[in-house]
Amino acid sequence: MKRGRPASNEPAWECHIHLRLRDGQDADLIAFLQHIPPRRRASAVKSALRSGGMQQPATGSNSQDDELNEAILDFLK
Fold first, then answer.
1. DSSP of 36-74, one letter per residue?
2. What is the dihedral of CA 25, 29, 30, 31, to 10 degrees?
3. What are the domain boundaries of the chain?
4. Do residues 44 and 36 touch, judged by C-beta distance below 8 A?
5. Do 41 and 33 touch, CB atoms closer than 8 A?
6. What is the rounded distance in angstroms from the CA atom of residue 43 to the CA atom of residue 15?
7. Which residues contact 29 (CB under 8 A, 6 or more apart)?
8. Would you give the DSSP letter of residue 8?
């Protein structure tokens, strides 16, 4: 009897991530990951990302930031 899920024919994209978590500032993440069996952590991280942690990185300039920078430069003149 075979175990696990059946092999997929779809191509896979692999992304290996190494996290260094600090006891104080990352206690919530450490607690989250400690309660998940090691071979289930990737699935848990994917679920966490899908439920709200996937904001697109900022690209280009932000007009509000540009206006603020101009105001500061004008103030300093």
1. S-GGGHHHHHHHHHHTT--PPPP-S--HHHHHHHHHHHH
2. 110
3. 17-51
4. yes
5. yes
6. 13
7. 19, 21
8. P
Query: To which residue do tokens 């990302």 refer?
Result: 49
Report pTM.
0.54
Both tokens assigned to 41: 């952590």
* 52-63 tens-digit pLDDT: 866 666 666 667
| C-alpha R_g of the chain | 21
Extract the tokens encoding 45. Answer: 């991280």
Q: Token pair of 1, please? A: 């009897």
Give Cα 38 distance to the centre of its chain: 18
**Backbone angles phi and psi of 45, in degrees to 5:** -65, -40
For 23-36, write each residue's pLDDT tens digit.
999 999 999 999 99
Residue with tokens 């990951």: 33
**10 in helix, strand or coil?**
coil
